[in-house]
Amino acid sequence: MPSIEELYALEILDSRGRPTVQATCTLGSGACGTASVPSGSSTGRAEAWELRDGDPSRYGGLGCRTAVTNINGEIRRALSGREIACQAELDRQLCELDGTSTKARLGANAILAVSIAFARAVAQAQAQPLFGYFAGLLGATPRLPQLTVNLFSGGKHAGGQVPIQDVLVVPSSARCVDEALAMVYAVYQAATALCLDKYGMRALTADEGGLAPPFLNADAMICDAVMAIERAGLRPGEDIDLAVDVAASHFFADGCYWLGHERLASHGMITRIRAWLDRYPIISVEDGLAEDDWAAWPDLNTVLQGRALTLGDDLLCTNPARIQRAVEQYAANALLLKVNQVGTLTEAAEACRLARAAGWAVVVSARSGETEDSWLADLATGWAGDFIKVGSITQSERLAKYNRLLEIEARHRLPFGGDHH
User: Fold this and answer.
1) What is the Cα–Cα distance from 109 to 106, expressed in whole angstroms?
2) 3-state class of 99 per DSSP?
3) Which among 5, 47, 103, 338 is annotated as catalytic?
């Protein structure tokens, strides 16, 4: 049974230059694990609470010194010298120590950093790859996920030049991660050339590395993605499919969706999404409706059934209670799993179990504010995610995850790609 010898935390910077938390856990055996946690900009209201300092004179109030102090002080004192039977026990103790339903007192960023650092230390102590340790938490058989890669960005990730957030490419015909990345590279290069030809714009990118030219509207954004696939010499809908992150909560106000200058009711938004599926090779629609538009989600799910995943992010927030409600109401059929939305590995595993029990697909996702830590690649593999959503292929915090997938693929003979299409 591992015992925690020492915990230490540090404030570091994420990919947007904002502070986040890194924690190091040392076990009595000498095994040591370090983990850093991401943060999101497109956040659902049901997410666990990321603790920020609120001092406007330092990082605009976004500092994480309080969360770091909580690890170096109260959490370390509570756990140091203790034997911890398993991951679930550690996470339970962290939640009990915090004492709030949202992890607002100690901070979900502090709690998650400790949760993952402990996981990495135990994996090292057991001389197994991190994805193997993660697989054991869920009783899953490891499998490399199919990629969904940001090509174009709008919404909160790119200054809102169009309302919808991301159009992603899915190399559906790829037989391995290596082949998938090579296909994505070809499309990305074609897209940068298209941006120069059509918009006179060099490859300026958004938070997650997606290209962000001044699209006229959402349809132009999706149409340009199809054009980039064709320019790369690949076949839309055969070699490469599309996924769309609508992030509809961010343009929902007064009971309506404001898609550019258009004002749409829920049924109008669903009709628009259906029209996109009729025109473009879209296999996944994320947050097609607002997070609290529960009454309309079952209609969207019915329209997409058999054609594309009804993927919930803000709707679900990796929150078991919200996932259970969505299952009961037939509101979605796929979970976007973000561990920091719920705050511990154990709770994220429970969310994953619920989704799998309902026959849903699972998409393991990074955040807009990421670090060079690669644990997400191991999580997506260990939990047999159908897809992984990391961002584009141009920034080190994204490439760390892709490169880890390549490393896992080269060193371990694992199956590739999810069952859902």
Assistant:
1) 8
2) coil
3) 338
Enumerate the domain spans of the chain: 4-127, 138-411
Q: Which of 208, 286, 350, 397 is catalytic?
A: 208
Strands 166-170, 146-153: pairing kind = antiparallel
Split at pLDDT 50, 70, 90, the class of 44 is: low
Whether 338 is a known active-site residue: answer yes
Residue that the structure tokens 């938490």 belong to: 137
User: Is residue 370 pLDDT above 70, yes or no?
Assistant: yes
Distance in angstroms (rounded) separating the CA atoms of residues 57 and 380: 38
Please check whether residue 177 is in contact with residue 405, taking contact to mean a CB–CB distance below 8 angstroms: yes
> Does residue 421 carry a pLDDT above 50?
no
Largest CA distance in the chain: 62
Burial class for 198, CB neighbours closer than 10 Å (0-12, 13-18, 19+): middle
Calpha distance 360→311 (Å, rounded): 9
The contacts of residue 374 (CB under 8 Å, 6+ apart) are: 400, 401, 403, 404
Of 185, 146, 181, 178, the C-alpha closest to 409 is: 178
Distance CA 340, CA 15 (A): 16
The continuous run of DSSP H or E covering 362 comes out as strand 361-365
| Nearest one of 324, 387, 384 to 357, comparing CA atoms | 324
Rounded to 10 deg, the angle between the 345-357 and 130-138 helix axes is 60
Q: Half-sphere exposure of residue 143, counting CA atoms within 13 Å on the CB side?
A: 20
Beta bridge partners of 257: 252, 264
Does 103 qualify as catalytic in the annotation?
no
Span 50-106, pLDDT tens digits: 999 999 999 999 999 999 999 999 999 999 999 999 999 999 999 999 999 999 999
35 DSSP β-pair partners: 23
Q: Architecture of 4-127 per CATH? A: 2-Layer Sandwich (3.30)
Q: What is the mean pLDDT of residues 232-236?
A: 98
Radius of gyration of the chain (CA): 21
pTM given for the model: 0.96
Residue located via tokens 């060079």:
372
Give which of 342, 328, 333, 291 is closest to 308, Cα–Cα.
Answer: 333
Indicate the length of the chain as a whole number. Answer: 421
As a whole number, mean pLDDT of residues 255-277 equals: 96
Are 380 and 356 within 8 A, CB to CB? Answer: no
pLDDT at residue 206, rounded to an integer:
72
The architecture (CATH level 2) of 138-411 comes to Alpha-Beta Barrel (3.20)
